Amino acid sequence: MTPIAVRITRLLAVTAILLATVLSGCTQDSDAPSQPADVATDIGSADTVPGEEDAAMDCPSKCDDWLACTDDFCDTATGTCVYKAVLGECTEPIPTNALEVGPYLQWAIQTEATIMWETTERCVGAVLLSKVGDSVWTPHLEGSFETIHEITVSDLTPGTEYAYRIRPCLDDEPVPEQWAFETFPESSDSYVFSVWGDSQDHPEVLSDLAEMMWDDGTRFAVAVGDVVSDGEVKEQWKELLFDSIASFSPYIPFFGAMGNHERNAEWLYKYYHLPEPETRFAFTYGPARFVVINGVTAYSMFDPQGAWLAEETESPEWKEASYRFVFFHEMPITNLWGHDKIDGEPLIRKVLMPQIEDKGVSVLFTGHAHCYERGYLPAGLGMFLVVTGGGGGGLDTVVSGDWPEITVAESKYHYTRVTVTPETAVVTAIALDGSELDTFDVLPGPIE
Ligand SMILES: [Fe+2]
Fold it and tell me: Cα(334) to centroid of ligand 1, in Å?
């Protein structure tokens, strides 16, 4: 039997036993150590008990490890920890499976969060979750063998801090670090979010910007695309994106819109965890509605997102929001580009803009042009346009357009910070040196 087959067999076995355990109302044996409070101090320890045949006898003394023998893992018949006995925790640990990426958060909203990471080998991983200040840690096992891991924890309480640990692979040592995140609140008057785009092949720029976003107290970030140079090249997702945002990505989520450089590659769908089809989604934070859509000409024109968008913009969540922010990659217009032949994307203007320009959008954020631009698009109900494509890709410096709608244009690396309050949303472009490139106010107002 191959190692993978062995692991699959073990997974099936533990799944069956866990199910039987849950159905039988298993409770922890009184002799088994209860731990969670002690677990934190022991998570770095190694199990050295040899021989799976002895596991049932030896495991109870090892149940103080961080994947503790809680009710779900307790075999009352033998008083042993099912997880350890079946998954071979009591055998000699294999060498630690290095964390390639993460952990990082995806789709962490009011009541759920997905914790992701990548390992060098395919395996089953686990997350241990606890409310901050609580002594109860709940284990969550992954349901499949992967190198890119994702575990969704749900039924969370809004506006609550949770601590988590990960076991990248069950056969490996636990990672000693502990991270935390706070679920989105049910309501919130004031907070900060950040937007960046087109970081591409200068991860050192994104790394600095990410630290600045984190220092700004951002609650989440939105990436408007082109976070890699070639989405088909797997290594770029680690080297250009995840390593660069490691300062905040374990603690707050980022929401990624697809750019043309992502190339609609499978890695986008593997590394992101977003509502299907993962290229368009919406969420609410306090008084604002956030809508991310597919704004890449090559991939979106045949994407049936028009009906989805029409439904979204008719929804109570959209209409009753004080602010409505839309994000996609390719800008409809620009006055800066790498040469003088492009002043925007005609198909975006022709196909996509009519779908949003009379819907009460407060601000449309895009990237694609490697610069910062602020404009106001008067068509329909009118909306601000922010091109925030200065995240690291080579800057666009050629004056290529003459759109009077664009009133501010800067070829500088930057990110955009938005401070939401009941009275106004303050949009500020922050340059790499910390200076303000631009700032303006957006007034609130639900759609009548
Ligand atoms: Fe682009």
Answer: 13
Q: Are the CB atoms for 109 and 183 separated by under 8 Å?
A: yes
What residue ranges do the domains of the chain occupy? 3-87, 99-182, 191-442
How far is Cα 73 from Cα 216, in angstroms, rounded to an integer? 42
Is 165 in contact with 250 (CB distance < 8 Å)?
Answer: no
- Distance, CA 315 to ligand 1 centroid (Å)? 30
User: Rounded to the nearest whole angstrom, what is the distance from the C-alpha of residue 261 to the centroid of ligand 1?
Assistant: 6
Domains 99-182 and 191-442 share a fold: no
Report field, pTM of the whole predicted structure over 0.90: no
CA of 198 to the centre of ligand 1 (A): 7
CATH for 99-182, among 3.20.20.370, 1.10.10.10, 3.40.50.620, 2.60.40.10? 2.60.40.10
CA 324-436-198 angle, 5° bins: 65
Residue with tokens 């103080």: 64
Q: Tell me, in angstroms, the distance from the centre of ligand 1 to residue 242's CA.
A: 19
| pLDDT tens over the chain, length 448 residues | 333 333 333 333 333 333 333 222 222 222 222 222 222 222 222 232 333 333 333 333 344 444 444 444 545 556 555 544 334 443 333 445 578 999 999 999 999 999 999 998 888 888 989 999 887 888 888 877 889 999 999 999 999 999 998 888 877 766 778 899 999 999 988 999 999 999 999 999 999 999 999 999 999 999 999 999 999 999 999 999 999 999 999 999 999 999 999 999 999 999 999 999 999 999 999 999 999 999 998 877 667 799 999 999 999 999 999 999 999 999 999 999 999 999 999 999 998 999 999 999 999 999 999 999 999 999 989 999 999 999 999 999 999 999 999 999 999 999 999 999 999 999 999 999 999 999 999 999 877 6
Could you say which architecture CATH assigns to the domain 191-442?
Answer: 4-Layer Sandwich (3.60)
Q: What is the 259 CA–ligand 1 centroid distance (Å)? A: 5
